[in-house]
Each structure stands twice: as C-alpha cells, then as structure tokens.
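pipeline: protein-struct stage 2 | run 1193 | Major facilitator superfamily (MFS) profile domain-containing protein
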Amino acid sequence: MVTPEEEVALIEDYVSDSVDHHGFPAGKLSTGGWRSAWYIIGVEVGERFAYFGIASNLITYLTGPLGQSTATAAVNVNTWSGTASMLPVLGAFIADAYLGRYHTIVVASLIYILGLGLLTLSAFLILIRISEQRNDTVKSFFWVNILFFCSLYMVAIGQGGHKPCVQAFGADQFDSGDSKERISRGSFFNWWFMTLSAGITLSFLVVVYVQDNVSWALGFGIPCLFMVMALALFLLGRKTYRYPRGNHKEKKNAFARIGRVFVAAYKNRKLNLSDSGLSQGLLEDGSSQKRKGWLEFLAKALLSGEGGAEPCSIKDVEDAMALVRLIPIWITSVISTIPYAQYSTFFTKQGVTVDRKILPGLEIPPASFQSFIGVSILISVPTYERVFLPLARYITKKPFGITMLQRIGAGMVLSSFNMVVAALVEMKRLETAKEYGLVDRPDATIPMSIWWFIPQYLLLGMIDVFSLVGTQEFFYDQVPTELRSIGLALSLSAMGLSSFLSGMLITVIDWVTGKDGGESWFNTNLNRAHVDYFYWLLAAFTAVGFLAFLFFSRLYVYRRVDQV
C-alpha cells in the first residue's frame, strides 16, 4: 500500500504534461532538462549553419551567376526569406494539430535535405553552363533556373516545419510547473540563441569563403552535409526527450475550442454581458479596465446562446483572449523588424564596393562580415545573463529582472538607432566615392575600410539578444500550452512579413525614384544610389513602431502561470 508521502514523491518525480519515448509519464531525472536540451540545441546549430550558408550570400549568387540587377536580387532575397519566415505558421499548425513536434521535425528535415541536394545540383548545372558559354552570367537554360528556385523554396518549406518545432520542443524539456525549471527555460532561450549564433558565424566564415573562392556547388553542398548531421544528432537523443502529453485528437481540439469562442461570441454579440455574473471573475480582476472594451465581446461566449446553445468554458475564453492580445504586439514587431532584412542584401552589396582587406594580403568576402553579428551575440548573451540580469533583478526585485515586453522594447530602440548608424556610414561611403572621382566607376574599390561597417553588424547582434530572443520567449510563453509551436511561429512570421514589406518598399521606391529617367535610390551603381535615404526612412518607421508598441504594451495583460 502506497502512503500519502510516497504518492507525493511519485507526483514530484514526474512531469505532469509530458511522456517519455515509450509513452509513459516522463521522469524528471531520466528525461528532459539540459541534457535533452543540448541535443536539440546541437541540431539547431547544424540547421542554422545550413540555412545561413544559403541565405547570407544569396544576393551575390543572384547578381553574379544568375545576372540579376541589385534591386531585383534584393526583392528576390526578401521574398524568399519572407516566405521562409512565414511558413513556420503552417509548419507549427501541422505539428500542433496533426503530427506532433517530433515527427514534424523529422519530416521537415528530410524535405530540407532534399531541397539542399537539388540546390547543389542546380548550382553545378549552372556552373557547367557558364563554362560552356564562357560568360559570367546565365540568361538561358530557363529550366535550370526553375530547378534552382524550386529547390530554394523547398529549403524554405523544410525550414518552415523545422524552425518553430525544434525551439518549442527544446523549451518543452523544461517543466513550466517547476519554479527552477521555469527559470532554466528562460535561460534556455538565451543560450539557445548564443550557441546557434556560433553555427551561423562559422557558416559566414567557411561557406561564404568557399562560395566566393572555390565553387558555388561545393558552397551549397556543405550546408546539405551539415543538415544530414543535424538530423542524425536529433534522432540520437530520442530516448532522452520529453514529449508533450496528448493524442492528435486532443491537439486538434485546441484549435476547435478556441475557434468556437469567436463563433459563440459573434452569435451572442447582441446579448447584454452585464445581465450575467458568469464573466465577473474573467473581467473583474486586478486588470479589469485593461480587459474591458476591445476584448469584452469574447466574454459573451460564456453566455448561453439562442436555442440553449452550450456556453464556452472560462479557460477557452481566456485562451482566445490570450491570442487576441498578441495581435497588436505582433503588428508592431513586424514594423520594427523591417530594418533586419537589410543586412543580407544592401549591407553586403555596400561591402563589395569598399576596401575589404583586414590584413595585408588578406581580403575577405563582404558577406563574411555578417559573422560579426554572431560575435556580438556570443559576447552579448553571457553579458546579458551574468551582468545585466543580476543587476536588473537587484534593481527591480523581480526574479526575471525585466519583463519580456521591456526586453522587446529595448531591442526596438536599438533597431532604430542602428538604421541611423547605417545611414551615416553610407553617407560617408558616398562622400568618399565623390571625393576620389569614383561615382561612375562602380567596379573600382572605394578607399574606405570595411571596418566602418562593423558597428551596424555588432548592433544587429545586440538587437537579436534583446528583441528577437525576447519575442520568441514572449510568444512561446503567452499562448496556450497546446499551441506553443504556433506561438513561436508567430514570432518568426513577424520577421517574415517584415521581409515582404521591405521587398515591397524597395519595389515601390525603385519605381517612383527611377521613373522619368531619374536616379533610383537602388541604382545598380551603388555610388549613384541613395540607400542612405532608405535607411533614414526605416529609422523613422521603426521609431513609429516603437511608439505604437509602448502604447499596446501598457495595455497588455500577461497570462497567469497556471494558464500556460
């Protein structure tokens, strides 16, 4: 016979909402925690190495072997990266509603590997065509270009299933009901980002060099090999993982029950909420004034509808409210991340025009300077964890130091400031080109060191630590448990939509400024372009987005721990 004390011990030894690989309750000592998390972090390092091995130098490939103009290539890069960042919403839905995170990661990884393999094949065929034509560009063999773009978007599809599920699955290894593991989960997002930045930095240094100096086919083949290694490592840790409890039918109900709240609220929109006391506990707590108004209509789902329709539960309404409250934060995040789309396009093209020697006789590819983003992250994360957070905890007397929204807001301020820095550096570059009479010599090297661009790359790393990591933790933490993959996908989709908006802005501005014989802001000859004007515009957009974020963040009500 089991004593009450032994029952308590048994409960404490297991995670209530997770199972092990056999389907039994997940033991705290035998599964999950940092041991499992490091397997998953290793997988993400390999995947990020592969992804940025393609993304970081893509504009050089498009303007080089494929012969596209700078504006067209920038739009294509933004469209692809935007698609890659939006597809996680679909991947997260499939994971949360049907396959589960583990199986979605496996399937997405196989698609990823296939796409990278075909991308390598297309690059090899294009190089053969260049050799046959003895020309620097490829304007024929339409089917080879089709293969290239199809394989490129296959990579985006694979990344769409892989990205939200791996991070959510990693965070699942920490029990939100355990105070110590909950704090560890917050650290997980920081160390997750720092370690994957090491993979990204290695990709910038190794893969970009191979692509620019050895072979594009080999430069695409190396990421494919790393993705194969990442999948093997993920499968290796299978027996140590905690798997979220619940079958697929229950997961589909998460979407159905929350969707039912909106339907019931709409049907009951003419009913008077004040006539019923059912919603009193929902709307009249310490933050009642914040909840009333633009969310009050959802509480009407608690009322019995016409014909005696069954009302929704308070939990369902709370979950629906949680999703709705995220919308303004998500929109302002989209606006504030538009500048982030520039580092892999215009930052790289600007670097081509200046002196890239870092040591006598040693010249590095311009895309490799993106490695300073990773260097900045490698410095910023430990500084944030070991210096900033303890100081913030001492000042605020809060266990997490600062709130997630405060962290995101700090990143927005840095983002706007970074665009100001980028605009000033570009003005310096244009002035130097004019001073040395190089305005109409786009192939000449401007006597300006590429080290001038270092501050904007370092600031991007700091922006990541505050805004990007904060956004990911916020959206994971503030959605219902069953929809955490969707939560992370929302944070990624904000960056995806910002890439689309960046591409749209480039297209419109290029058309407006270039019509009637005018000089486009994005002239192929960057010495006659005005990318600095574009940066000033983005700085203004980001500042406006931050002001809107301040307004909505003051109205935001965090979900209680017992609801998450």
